[in-house]
Every structure is written in structure tokens, then in C-alpha cells.
UniProtKB/TrEMBL annotation:
<dbReference type="GO" id="GO:0007165">
    <property type="term" value="P:signal transduction"/>
</dbReference>
<dbReference type="InterPro" id="IPR000157">
    <property type="entry name" value="TIR_dom"/>
</dbReference>
<protein>
    <recommendedName>
        <fullName>TIR domain-containing protein</fullName>
    </recommendedName>
</protein>
<dbReference type="InterPro" id="IPR035897">
    <property type="entry name" value="Toll_tir_struct_dom_sf"/>
</dbReference>
<keyword id="KW-0520">NAD</keyword>
<feature type="domain" description="TIR">
    <location>
        <begin position="16"/>
        <end position="203"/>
    </location>
</feature>
<dbReference type="Pfam" id="PF01582">
    <property type="entry name" value="TIR"/>
</dbReference>
Amino acid sequence: MVKITDEGASSSTHRWDYDVFLSFRGEDTRNNFTSHLYKALCDKGINTFIDDSLQKGEEISKELVKAIESSMISIVIFSKNFASSTWCLNELVKILECRSNGQWVLPIFYKVKASEIRKQEGEDNPFRIALAKHEEKFKDDREKVQRWRKTLTDAADLSGFPYNDGYTESENLWYWGNREIVQQESEEFEQRSRIWRYEDAHKLLTGNMGSKKIRSIMLLSPERIEVSLKANEANFL
């Protein structure tokens, strides 16, 4: 992976195994929104991890921990019963921990409001109800529940995408996908917020040498590559 900015260059030896990790409550969205989103990402050549197994036990598996750590982006699909699953909550804790490694977290609020997750208040708030039940169950480990509460609040504070019940699901996928992940395949390179493929980045770089249009470019390649920018008279690995 190579990261190049107009102020200079920095490099990292970290290599992602996946472009995207999907975190979701299976009973809420596995067979509708999440499956459609997964297909949309895969159709665009975006390497996406999805857990197809039934979640069992309180703690997430070592395989899932590794998948989260090796994913460049985590998309968290918050839904009504998300917080009722300790598996989902522990997964979310790990996802936010990985933000310190430069990973990107995108929340989707599927038929729930960010404020419900952030405030955890209100008699009918499913997140308040779920956390109250966890406090009763884990009365000897209140720190665990407090960690879940804080993690939910922190995640809800991130810039995300609401699912609008006034549209069909396909329309929501089109709107959301084109604003971020799927939009990266646009032929208008200058309109993209992120570049995914080496070939695209090379085209953009060679077309803008010496300009200040390029703020940051991250290149992912199966092999080590060398990029030469004559404008800076330097080589980056």
C-alpha cells in the first residue's frame, strides 16, 4: 500500500485482505438490505467480507477479529435489534478500536435514528431496552455494558447514511452506494473522493503532475510497486 499526498509522501507496509467488512444484525437485514448491499459491492469488484455463519456464543470468533483487522473499511448496519446481540456489540467495539490503524468506519442507520443510538433514551427506544437487559444479565460486569454504551455513542457520532423508509430499498442502495463506495467506479476520476485501483491512480497521477488537485491517494497492489512523481523528483515504495 502506498499513500501519496501533495505535501509529501508516506508509506505503510500494511496490506488489507478485504476492502470492506460488513457488520450487521442477521435477523434484521441479512436477507434484505445487507444481502443486496453485498451484491452491489461485489458487482463493482469491491472485495467484501460477510459472515455467512449463524452467530453463536457471547464472544466473536478469532476469524472475525482477523477479518475486521484486515479490512480497510467497516460498514456497520445499525438496525432495531442490533444492540440486543452481544456478538454485534463486541464486533462494534473491535471495529472502533481498529480506527486507530487508519481504518474507515461507515455507519448505515437502517430504520433507526442516529439519535436513538447516541442518546439511548426513551421508553420505546430499542437500544435503551437492549442495554437495560444487558445490565441485568451482566450485573457483575458493569464495565462491559458501559463499554458497549460508549462504543454505540461514538459510532452514532460518525458521519453515516440513513435508510429512508419513504423510498424502496433499491433506491436507497443506489443513493447510498453512489455517494461513497460504488461511486468510486465513476469514469470521472477528479470527482472521486477515493481511488481504489492502481490503474486508475496512475491515470490520475500522470494527468495531474505538478498540480495541487491531488490531496491523498492510496494504492493497493498485489505486488510491490514503484511510483515516480517527477513533480516532486522522488520515488515512493
